[in-house]
Amino acid sequence: MEKTKKNKLMRIVVSIVAALAFWIYMEIQEPVDVTTEVRNIPVEFTGEDTTLADRGLMLLSGYDTTVDLELQGSRSVLWKLNKDEVRVVVNTAGITSPGTQKLRYTVDFPDEIPDNSISVKDASVWNVTVKVGELYTKEVPIEVDIRGSVPSGFFTENVIVDPVKLTLRAPREELLNVSHAKVVLNIGDATSTLIKTLEYTLYDYNDIPVHNDEIRASTKLIQVTLPIRTSKEVPLRVELVGAEQHSESVHVTIDPETVVIVGEVDVISGIHAITLDKIYVEDLFTGMNGPYSYTIKTPAGVSTQNGVKEAIVTVAVNGTTEGSVIVESINCEGVADGLRAHVEGSLEIALWGSEEAVETITPEQVLVRVDVSEVTEAGTYTLPAVITLQNTEGISVRGEYEVTVVVETRPVTLPEGETGAVAPIDPTL
Length: 429
Hints:
Blueprint: H1 2-29, E1 33-46, H2 48-54, E2 57-61, E3 66-74, H3 75-80, E4 87-91, E5 99-104, E6 106-108, E7 118-123, E8 127-134, E9 137-147, E10 154-156, E11 160-162, E12 165-169, H4 172-175, E13 178-186, E14 194-199, E15 201-204, E16 209-210, E17 216-217, E18 221-226, E19 228-241, E20 250-255, E21 258-263, H5 265-268, E22 274-280, E23 292-295, E24 303-304, E25 310-317, E26 320-327, E27 330-333, E28 339-343, E29 347-354, H6 355-360, E30 366-371, E31 379-389, E32 395-397, E33 401-409
Parallel strand pairs: 1-4, 9-13, 19-22, 27-30
Antiparallel strand pairs: 1-3, 2-8, 3-7, 4-6, 5-8, 9-12, 10-19, 11-18, 12-17, 13-15, 14-18, 15-16, 19-21, 20-25, 21-24, 23-25, 26-29, 28-33, 29-32, 30-31, 31-33
């Protein structure tokens, strides 16, 4: 019994494989055409906005026509066909006069389908009936009906509509009573700019909706942008660099002290102050006051309220003086092995600060250092000097300095009575 079942199963499998092999052979050797249906294909019209419009004509009906097709071709080709990409196209270039006309259409298949590999066996209609009228155009404004309001602390700016006007096409008598188009924008609880793509409705001069299928428009959707802003008061500032030692001598006033900024909430929430300028204290001088005018610069998308665009800054420097000190001891740091370095001459350092500090400072309180670690061979070099004041208050160094450094090969000293031996280098030389 078990053996009989196995033999029966084997015969079924062999039959299926044989049938499949025969079908594949027939498809390759003698392909058999089969059919498939594609329904509700919308008709597309070409040349309406070019050739037909140039002749002063337009289509009044026929836009809603759909076609059902029965297609025939080999099974392998129809399997590849994407039915959504089958197009029915009517060329309007042959229309030369108004009236009702029947137009032939063509069927376009996707590019990957070989030419003439599919034919139309049957169709729900073979011609598309259209009504042609004389072209008349009219531009009407687009109004926005804004519904709702923004939360407290927010406000809206002028609404932006794209396009600003709507171009309509229809027989002249159909457009005479059309006054404007209108879209409805619901604000809801929005706290940031709204950008919506909306459908419009046509209205007559009595603000009554106009519904007319013979009226064609340049677009079906209108883009509406409603800027939603909030405001915030922030201080104006001037950044003083190096003011720690002279905080009592440098006084800055700004008029106005604060400004109200306007913008998107997510942008201005991160702005806590506006810096007008960066002033280096070492560049100031006694008696400096100004006033100096600065443009209030805001980030992109942020503006100032009430047209405030300028601030007046006054800098007062009081109780200070200028002086100098001459330093002869200059340290060379980072000298490479086998070399020695020294600075030729002295260096006059310009100082600025309180009168007492400037008058009492001594050269011993000024440390001048030169980094020669990048020098690897003897020669004369111009290098920057770093100035550090020690045990001083209310005083700072003006300017930047360079010194001339002479780098020499350090002599080698050999013990008495020895020749050719390499002696340790004396670092004090």
